[in-house]
TrEMBL record:
GO cellular component, as recorded: membrane
Subcellular location(s) per record: Membrane
Origin species: Halomonas beimenensis
Protein family according to the UniProt entry: Belongs to the sodium:neurotransmitter symporter (SNF) (TC 2.A.22) family.
Membrane topology note: Multi-pass membrane protein
UniProt xrefs under InterPro entries: Na/ntran_symport (IPR000175), SNS_sf (IPR037272), YocR/YhdH-like (IPR047218)
Full protein name: Transporter
NCBIfam families documented for this protein: Na_transp
CDD domains: SLC6sbd_Tyt1-Like
Molecular function per GO: symporter activity
Length: 448
């Protein structure tokens, strides 16, 4: 797989690895999902719980996934099975790997639909569709897209084709290069957009909204949403980070690397919030407008600022790239699994997995128009896929990962592998044996 080739490239393996892991982590979750979840959940209280979840639960699980992958040197399901066997534990731990792979498949199906929106908006910025529009005009553009199954299908199909094409070739050599230019470019653009937010006169309001909590707005439901998003945004509970870890050398410091990836992911998400909320307040837009939030706010800014066409084009291109690098990481473990369990070749496996995810994605995109009726638990297909993965599968798989690492593997060997001793070791064990699993369990049970 990709990272193995990357190690032979002329970057240090640590840098190549950070780039691939960051490419998976930074995506639609940061720029599309995080802001609208903040908006739906009432602001700062959600943000602070989210940050807590990232630090106390997300970071340790990220490290645990890499550790399992590095030791297993195999795909997530096999790695779990082998490590369990070596430690004399039940082989059933393998199910943690399997459920991760299934989750990746389900996420990919609806992730690609949003990737399609991003493609369509890239096109819209070139044609100047945002120029001079007011909030109503921009809203109309978005609603017209949602109302058109054909348009959504076209975007979803092109996006999935790109993903399939890249993965079928075994992930292009250009991927890490793309990520390496993408991150700084995204960072710079974010600064520009936050700068624009400052000119709206509503930046202070946005800051307060994001960081000054009103704790009464917090519910069990919100905490579960924050936890689920912590998993989603770091690509955890999907076997992905395990698969990436399996290409790691012993010399890489997992804790330090995890800190780097987590910081980049968090900075991009908060940057997106700081760019979007001033525009929401300045235009009296609906905070809880859900998945459409960035598509009805940012174009408003692009349509009414100097160089808006160029900046809009850059933004949606970058968003599409970020979505692609994450989607690739979603398809990869599914393909590996199909390839190993069936006689199919890599290309055939990619086609089978990709086409299956594409077909499921069609049900997801019809949720916005022809098939908006609830199918289960009062949710339509899109919401069902989103909630099922973020709120159930990711946290449960992550819980399995952390319990396995903390309680089934030799704790002293783990501490040694992470370069921990003394207080650091005690802290690591306290977090991974108790704080993180109990946190996940409590949030999970209280939300039921
Ligand atoms: N972490 C990606 C994002 O924030 O957009 C999305 C994602 C990728 C989720 C891979 C899950 C995953 F396994
Ligand atoms: Na992310």
């Amino acid at each position: 797989m990709s990272i193995k080739q990357h190690q032979h490239a002329h970057w240090s393996s640590r840098l190549a690895f950070i780039l691939a892991a960051t490419g998976s982590a930074v995506g639609l979750g940061n720029i599309w999902k995080f802001p609208y979840m903040v908006g739906e959940s009432g602001g700062a209280a959600f943000v602070l719980v989210y940050l807590l979840c990232i630090a106390l639960i997300g970071l340790p699980i990220l490290v645990a996934e890499w550790l399992i992958g590095r030791r297993g040197q195999n795909n997530p399901a096999n790695a779990m099975a082998d490590l369990a066997k070596a430690a004399g534990k039940p082989k059933a731990w393998m199910l943690v790997g399997v459920s991760g792979i299934l989750g990746a498949f389900l996420i990919l199906s609806f992730y690609s639909v949003i990737g399609g929106w991003s493609l369509y908006y890239t096109l819209n910025s070139v044609t100047g569709a945002f120029s001079g529009q007011d909030a109503d005009g921009i809203g109309e553009l978005f609603n017209a897209m949602l109302a058109s199954p054909g348009l959504l299908l076209a975007g979803h199909s092109v996006f999935m084709l790109l993903v399939i094409g890249i993965v079928a070739r075994g992930v292009t050599k250009g991927l890490e290069g793309a990520v390496r230019t993408l991150m700084p470019a995204l960072g710079i653009l974010m600064v520009v957009l936050v700068g624009y937010g400052m000119t709206t006169g509503h930046f202070g309001e946005a800051l307060a909204y994001l960081f000054n909590p009103n704790w009464s707005a917090l519910s069990g439901e919100t905490v579960l949403a924050a936890l689920g998003h912590a998993f989603f945004t770091l690509s955890l509970g999907m076997g992905i980070m395990m698969a990436y870890g399996s290409y790691l050398g012993e010399e890489v410091n997992l804790l330090k690397t995890a800190r780097t990836v987590v910081i980049m992911d968090t900075v991009i998400a908060l940057g997106a919030g700081l760019a979007i909320f001033p525009i929401v307040f300045a235009n009296g837009l609906d905070l809880a407008s859900g998945p459409g939030l960035i598509f009805v706010t940012l174009p408003l800014a692009f349509g009414n600022m100097g160089a808006g066409i160029v900046l809009g084009l850059m933004f949606f291109l970058l968003l599409t790239f970020a979505a692609l690098t994450s989607a690739i990481s979603l398809l990869e473990p599914v393909v590996e699994f199909v390839e190993e369990r069936t006689p199919l070749s890599r290309v055939a496996s990619t086609l089978v997995a990709g086409i299956a995810a594409w077909a499921l994605g069609i049900a997801a995109l019809l949720s916005f128009n022809l098939w908006s009726d609830p199918v289960l638990f009062g949710l339509n297909v899109f919401d069902l896929l989103d909630k099922l993965t973020s709120k159930f599968m990711l946290p449960l798989t992550g819980l399995g990962v952390i319990l396995f690492t903390a309680w089934q593997l030799d704790r002293h060997a783990v501490a040694k592998e992470l370069g921990l001793s003394g207080a650091g070791e005690t802290l690591w064990h306290a977090v991974t044996r108790f704080i993180a699993p109990i946190g996940v369990a409590v949030v999970f049970i209280s939300s039921l």
